[in-house]
Amino acid sequence: MMNLAPELRAAIEKAGQSHLLEYSSELLAAQLKEIDWELLPELIANYVVKKPQISIPEDLQPAPYFPLVPRNKEEEEKKARAQALGIELLKSGKAACLTVAGGQGTRLGFDGPKGTYPIGPVSGRTLFEYFAQSIARAEEKFGAPIRWYVMTSALNREATETFFRENGNLGLREDQVFFFTQGTMPAIGYDGKLLMSSPDSLALSPDGHGGTLLALRKSGALEQMKKDGVEYISYFQVDNPLVPVVNPLFIGMHALEKADMSAIMLAKTNAFEKLGNFCVTNGHLEIIEYSDLPAELAESRNPDGSLRFISGSPAIHVISRAFVERLTASGKLDLPWHRADKKIPSVSDPKPEAPNGVKLESFIFDALALAEKTLVLEGDRAEMFAPTKNPTGVDSVESCREMLIARDLRRLRAAGVKVGGDVKVELSPRRVFDDEDAIQLAAAQNLEEISSGTETVIG
Ligand code: UTP
Questions:
Q1: Same domain, 145 and 174
Q2: Would 23 be classed as within a structural domain?
């Protein structure tokens, strides 16, 4: 029999999960201690037994945003002020980077943490290396330290840390990278019983990127930020190497607006592009998932023919540290859960052929609805969003590499370099953080022309 406190045993029974008490393992006992048994029956009732119905509020409107190209002098001035402020904040060490890398990357089908995928179109540099080198260059440029918070899951923490260790901490200082681990959620069978992945263990999975917020507190990351004087968190996903690791304009605009949490929006390429939609309801900013936005709204148009719900989310945020402090002060965080029906291997069915249960995840963007002040800034897709979700096709390794090359070629052309046809060039992120760096690099290397067919890394 497992060594469990009588109160825990009673709580498990009360939650209708006595089948778990038939097993005996230390690991399982430790897992059972971590579960919120009071909350569980409610989750099962609301998310598993019945499918949560997404109700679209009647007052739903497209969210306002600050446009990429200012529409008037006032916006032009504001943009310039924000850019200057962002640079100032970076120079005074007020920002840190946060990468969420706890996902399972099932679509990519790569063996190992997604961040160790060799994305560099010419160099084969991994996603983690891309970010590390870019952070190192940004530090150099702004002359202030930038700490990198990397969120892993319990499943990939060890492999992630090993990768960093075996690769010289990717060129970063020993204490510059702060790893932390998100929480887990137990998978629940359609009968409302928690599933066991083996006789020793529950079937557990990461609790979604919404888990970031509580994990920041529990891991001591928030405290570290406070000690460092960091006020702004530059948040991005591990599968998007095109993202600027810190974006002075975005950070500056967020600070200028005194926002709690801000988001980059991209103009959707079509009504049904698979991006969350920025909406406003009841005075609050909200992201409605593409699968939840009714077709008639997704397709509705403005008088000029443009999509009404044009704003898609690439999951790039600036989050104020103070906001995370506030949200997590009680040690709990009320974000809604999202249900995903999955084939979950378990002791009773090691290879299910159809979905047999539910995984629950929370999403970071649901924190936008809890913010008092938010800001949405339009971004340029070609400069910041190349997600690596699949091996080929849309949002894939292929499309990501093409976009990285296109961005670097644009930078080279802007630096006055003539570029021939069929060129595959990669600018080293360690040398080039922005357009200005590309100009300097081209000058330093007397780069005037890249002839057709060249395949090379510069920098
Ligand atoms: P995705 O939603 O693309 O999920 O995550 P994924 O697990 O990486 O890939 P699939 O869906 O299994 O193919 C978006 C970002 O959020 C992170 C991922 O690592 C990625 O950077 N994430 C996701 C977490 O950090 N934790 C999670 O629990 C889920």
A1: yes
A2: no
Give me the residues paired with residue 151 across strands.
100, 180
Q: Is 148 exposed, middle or buried (0-12, 13-18, 19+ CB in 10 A)?
A: buried
What sections of 219-275 are H helices per DSSP? 221-228, 248-256
- How far, in Å, is the centroid of ligand 1 from the Cα of 43? 22
Atom of ligand 1 nearest to the CA of 205: 28
Instruction: Report the alpha-carbon angle 435-146-70, nearest 5.
Output: 40
CB of 146 closer than 8 Å to CB of 138: yes
Measured in angstroms, how far is the CA atom of residue 431 from the centroid of ligand 1? 29
Partner residues linked to 264 by β-bridges = 377
Are 330 and 273 members of one domain?
yes
For residue 54, what pLDDT band results from cuts at 50, 70 and 90?
confident
SS (H, E, C) 159-180: HHHHHHHHCHHHHCCCCCEEEE
The pair of structure tokens assigned to 210 is 């919404």
Q: Are residues 204 and 231 in the same domain?
A: yes
369, 437: one domain: no
Q: Is the pLDDT of residue 1 over 80?
A: no
Closest residue (by CA) to atom 9 of ligand 1? Answer: 105
What band does 23 get if pLDDT is binned at 50, 70 and 90?
very high
Domain extent, residue 426, equals: 393-459
Q: Which atom of ligand 1 is nearest to the CA of 107?
A: 13
Residues 333 and 317 in one domain: yes
Per the confidence metrics, is the pTM higher than 0.85?
yes
Q: Is the pLDDT of residue 251 over 80?
A: yes
Give me the sign of the Cα torsion angle 360, 364, 370, 376: negative
Number of folded domains that form the chain: 2
Q: What is the pLDDT of residues 193-242, one digit of tens each?
A: 999 999 999 999 999 999 999 999 999 999 999 999 999 999 999 999 99
